[in-house]
């Protein structure tokens, strides 16, 4: 295994004309196996947003939520393919941040990397709060903060150990999530076909009744589309983890290829089963969650508790993966001179322990703010992360446009994974991202998030550009 006690500090010049400086990236232990990568790719995008949050989208879009998830799923598949091409050609623990630095400049790597780190750390806090609420529901009287602290400490220790511990934990978390969805799809499919004992085939009654396929018109579809786009967040983790796998190039290529169609089946298939079996305007779809509402409708006993277990697993899995992703992104940024050097130190087993600790502490700080300042500071944090994932996707698309051309010219053998119909589908994906931004600006509920995220990105870009100018002056 490749290990270092400190990250590399120098960038290596590359390219036929010596014009490009390849950003240094930290070398960590290569302890992840292919099965770990495959399940991280699958489980990374299956979170509590799918199991619970999708109810709001169904309530807004009705049966047309299937179209919303299909459109957003297509966008996500294009982004995943682009990221797969970039990561297979140049595996790096900094993933898209490294690619953005190579393609656009150090300011872009700084902006995308620290924005993503901020997103993951705040998300860790949110997931911890969600998991604690489930535990206090089972054990009334126990303090929420104590459960969050327990989860934080557990996953901090998991990530401080060898990376294979993280990989093994995430493998089983993801396997349980995937297994739960597969069982749900099988039960739902039998019910739709009228083969489930005690049920009758619903036909198209729920798809065309109560206002039709698009009961709230285009406005409802737009709200459902926005909800579905952000439910897919998490696909980036596999490209970060690939750098610590036994065979980074082959690993990320296989993980991307196998995960894309499975994700489409899980998300779009789940939505299709739900709206076919349950009226879209059933209040339980929002109050209990669409999966619980569907299982209750089919008479499955203890459906709410079964789904509580699944949601808890999804939240804990996301906490584990986000602490990992945040620490690796921070360590990579620091290795490239984009942050405080002290946080980039690694242990003897190749784990960036200070980056893990810093990311965990920041995440727990967000949890404390939810108790101390719930109405102002914590709300500002939530609004700032609202559209970060879309900004990251734009950096990925622009980087792919630039680096694909460069790689084809300098070393085409690195293109193990190729973006389909380049550059047309990349431009189509970029157009889709811009369209989502415009739709967010159109909706009052998401417009504020856009403003706050824009402010954060502008501030990071200004700092990154100033650092870049300063570095050029010193040289």
Strand count, sense and barrel status of the largest sheet are: 2 strands, antiparallel
- Low-confidence segments: 1-19
CATH topology: Amino acid/polyamine transporter I
What quaternary form is this?
single chain
Question: Major sheet: order of its strands?
Answer: 1-2
Number of domains: 1
The CATH architecture is Up-down Bundle
How do the SSEs run, as a string of H and E? EEHHHHHHHHHHHHHHHHHHH
Provide the CATH superfamily: Amino acid/polyamine transporter I
Q: What is the residue-averaged pLDDT?
A: 85
The backbone outline, from C-alpha atoms, is globular
Helix count from the secondary structure assignment: 19
How many runs of DSSP E, i.e. beta strands?
Answer: 2
Describe this structure in words.
- The protein is mainly α.
- It is 71% helix and 1% strand.
- The chain has a single domain, classed as Amino acid/polyamine transporter I (Up-down Bundle).
- The chain contains 19 helices and two strands.
- Strands 1-2 form a two-stranded antiparallel sheet.
- A hairpin with a 5-residue loop joins strand 1 (12-14) and strand 2 (20-22).
- Helix 3 crosses helix 18 and helix 4 (96-103) packs antiparallel against helix 5.
- Residues 1-26 are annotated as: Disordered.
- This is Amino acid permease.
SSE layout:
Layout (H helix, E strand, L loop, with lengths): L11 E3 L5 E3 L11 H10 L4 H14 L3 H25 L6 H8 L2 H33 L5 H17 L2 H30 L12 H4 L8 H15 L5 H6 L5 H30 L6 H4 L2 H8 L5 H33 L17 H20 L4 H8 L3 H23 L13 H19 L1 H31 L1
Antiparallel strand pairs: 1-2
Helix pairs in contact: 1-7, 1-11, 2-9, 3-9, 3-11, 3-17, 3-18, 4-5, 4-17, 5-6, 5-14, 5-15, 5-17, 5-19, 6-14, 6-15, 7-11, 7-14, 13-14, 14-15, 15-16, 16-19, 17-18, 18-19
């Amino acid at each position: 295994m490749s290990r270092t006690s400190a990250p590399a500090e120098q960038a290596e010049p590359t390219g036929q004309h010596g014009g490009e400086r390849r950003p240094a990236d930290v070398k960590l232990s290569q302890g992840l196996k292919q099965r770990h990568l495959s399940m991280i790719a699958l489980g990374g995008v299956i979170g509590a947003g799918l199991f619970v949050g999708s109810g709001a989208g169904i309530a807004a879009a009705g049966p047309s939520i299937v179209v919303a998830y299909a459109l957003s799923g297509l966008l996500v598949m294009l982004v995943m393919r682009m990221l797969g091409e970039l990561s297979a050609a140049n595996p790096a623990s900094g993933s898209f941040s490294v690619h953005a630095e190579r393609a656009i400049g150090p300011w872009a790597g700084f902006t995308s990397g620290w924005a993503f780190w901020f997103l993951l750390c705040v998300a860790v806090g949110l997931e911890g709060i969600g998991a604690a609420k489930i535990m206090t529901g089972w054990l009334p009287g126990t303090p929420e903060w104590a459960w969050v602290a327990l989860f934080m400490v557990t996953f901090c220790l998991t990530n401080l150990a060898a990376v294979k511990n993280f990989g093994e934990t995430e493998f089983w978390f993801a396997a349980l999530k995937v297994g739960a969805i597969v069982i749900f799809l099988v039960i739902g499919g039998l019910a739709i076909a009228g083969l489930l004992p005690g049920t009758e085939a619903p036909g198209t009654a729920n798809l065309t009744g109560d206002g039709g396929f698009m009961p709230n018109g285009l406005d409802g579809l737009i709200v459902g589309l926005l909800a579905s786009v952000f439910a897919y967040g998490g696909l980036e983790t596999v490209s970060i983890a690939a750098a610590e796998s036994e065979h980074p190039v082959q690993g990320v290529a296989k993980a991307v290829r196998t995960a894309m169609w499975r994700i489409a089946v899980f998300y779009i298939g789940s939505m299709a089963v739900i709206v076919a079996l349950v009226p879209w305007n059933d209040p339980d779809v929002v109050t209990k969650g669409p999966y619980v509402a569907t299982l209750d409708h089919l008479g499955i006993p203890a459906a709410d508790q079964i789904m509580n277990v699944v949601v808890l697993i999804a939240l804990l899995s996301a906490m584990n993966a986000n602490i990992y992703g945040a620490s690796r992104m921070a360590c990579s940024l620091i290795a490239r001179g984009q942050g405080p050097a002290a946080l980039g130190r690694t242990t003897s087993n190749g784990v960036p322990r200070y980056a893990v600790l810093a990311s965990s502490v920041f995440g727990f700080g967000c949890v404390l703010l939810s108790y101390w300042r719930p109405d102002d500071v914590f709300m500002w944090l939530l609004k700032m992360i609202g559209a970060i994932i879309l900004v990251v996707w734009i950096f990925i698309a622009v980087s792919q446009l630039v680096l694909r051309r460069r790689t084809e010219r300098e070393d085409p053998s690195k293109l193990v994974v190729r973006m389909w119909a380049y550059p047309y589908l990349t431009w189509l994906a970029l157009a889709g991202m811009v369209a989502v931004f415009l739709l967010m600006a159109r909706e009052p509920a998401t417009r504020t998030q856009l403003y706050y995220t824009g402010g954060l990105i502008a501030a990071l870009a200004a700092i990154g550009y100033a650092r870049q100018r300063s570095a050029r002056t010193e040289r």
